[in-house]
Amino acid sequence: MSAHALILAAGRGERLRPLTDRTPKPLLAAGGKPLIEWQVEKLVAAGFGEIVVNHAHLGEQIEAALGDGTRFGARIRYSPESPALETAGGVAQALPLLGGAPFVVVSADIHTDFPYRTLQARIDGMVHAADAPLAHFVLVGNPPWHASGDMGLEDGRITRAKPWLTYGNIAVFHPSVFTEVGRGTWLKLFPWMYRLVDAGRVTGERYDGAWDNVGTAEQLQALDRRLRP
Which residue of 18, 112, 171, 203 is 20 to 30 Å from 196, comparing CA positions? Predict the structure, then answer.
């Protein structure tokens, strides 16, 4: 059975206006393809054939563009939000669609060569070990626009000790993390998740390969130039 993945696509993309006034950020193109399609294709290739997409701003355009997932070899379902519920709230809202096993969460506005298939082992570990972590985060080196970073990494565990790295918007979560969050609740992932970090229940890894977080028109243009043949 295919593993589940949630693509976070509910952001408004304020810094990309006016591009996002009429087009949702996940459908902005780089390398001739919408950002979210890159994510769908990479997830499906890695064995994540059950995909949920949350959306808010112009979400009907996302549904029209991706459809039911057939052309990608996946099943795609949708978790609409009005208004957007932030990351933790969005995951909690989508939880009924994500099955009972741990699942992957990625943002629609990143482009990366991270090997998503390796996260299958993280999922298996959360299922089979009683003292298993409840979350796993992929961290990246601090980009110029986020030089201070977000959190630390020591011996495979996420910490709040410096030096800090940047959260790469790629994670695995056990569903129990979100069961206490009521549907429709607006909730950011941080600092809410730090309680599990402090309890030693969040593992992590550093990825030094290709990774872009598209937040501005300049970043979108730079990624577009790199991806085009």
Answer: 112
pLDDT above 90 for 34: yes
How far apart are alpha carbons 154 and 26 in whole angstroms? 33
The domains located in the chain, with CATH, are: 4-227 (3.90.550.10)
Residue pLDDT, tens place only, 100-122: 899 999 999 999 999 999 999 99
Residues 31 and 121: their CA atoms lie apart, in Å, by: 31
Burial of residue 67 (CB within 10 Å: 0-12, 13-18, 19+) is: exposed
Segment 134-168, tens digit of pLDDT: 999 999 999 998 999 999 999 999 999 999 999 99
* pTM exceeds 0.90 for this model: yes
